[in-house]
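Researcher: Here's the sequence for the chain we discussed earlier.
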Amino acid sequence: MTNYLANLIPHSRFYTQQEILDTLYFRNGQRVDSYKAYLLDRNDIKIGEIPIESGNISFSALGQIKRSGTFKTRYNKDIDYLTNRLHPHFILKMPKEDIEFPLGIFLIATSPPVDTGYGIDSELQVFDKTIILSRNTLEKPLTIAAGTNIVNYCVRLLAEMGFVRISAIANDAVTGRTIILDPATSMLEVINTLLKMINYNGIYFDRNGFAVIEPYTLPIERSIDIEYIADSASSVITPGFVNELNLFDIPNKFNVVSVNNETEAILTATFENRNPLSPVSIDRVGWINSMDYEVSDITDQMVLNDYIKRLAYNYSEKYNKTTFTTPNMPFHDYYNCLYLGYPRFDINARYLETSWTMNFTGDMKHEARRKVDI
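Model: Thanks. This is the structure I predict for it:
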């Protein structure tokens, strides 16, 4: 069991984490599962529970709004659709205990009731808390003074907007000059602009509704989170595995310039992929495919050097994209590192999951990019 799963699978009074994982992977025969949602107030306090008849959740690691979905449930006149939130859970039904996996906290966008003749149903369109940041825009220019700690400032902005659940990894980096952001800029753009300066991931909200602020980690430094192996007796990969290759459009040389940066000198960085083991390197393809890129307000040369490596890895991953389906697996979240074994395509490699969609009455679709050493 990976460290990621050990930290995620709930502890049970009757079952070990490995027994729960084996049941999810059908290693003990058939499994039984269902879905429900806890009803929360605007402060994420549980105030009730509603059943979920059908629906889906989609997650896009590369999108601005990471998590969205649609839930079908019975119409409930007591729900305040403007302020209440939903916290859906995957329920793994085991003989002695139900094991619950949270799937995110959502705001309700629309809820048109439909009279089916057998009752009134509501189909709820929902979005995670990122929607709050994207809809909240600056009324006037925002001035951020030189010497401001970037992570602390982002946390303060979240707190001022009423967010309580915040998980932020500290960083000593500060702004080197006064930064002014224009009116009508969304708070999502404000925060992500600041985090980009120190090579952090864009902000996202996890399965329990926590705002997550964390450094970007190079793929080569990532540990495996989840494994799917098609040749094992308990394989859960269903037919329809797609393996796409794109060798022609992947740069192998990157030139980056930081303009309006926080030092008087212009910062530049160059990265060449010369790794003979990399399928898209200069040495392998025999020619240079350059890409020039411009960024703003990188704090220093070391951060720019890290950023250009991030850029190179992100583009190199695009050379091999895989799409596959499994039964619904409730432990996927943000940009998981997957190990895929698929003998028919001679695949035994690590992939980074860019998106997934969980259909409550069907399968789970995954899209992932292969981790390429450069």
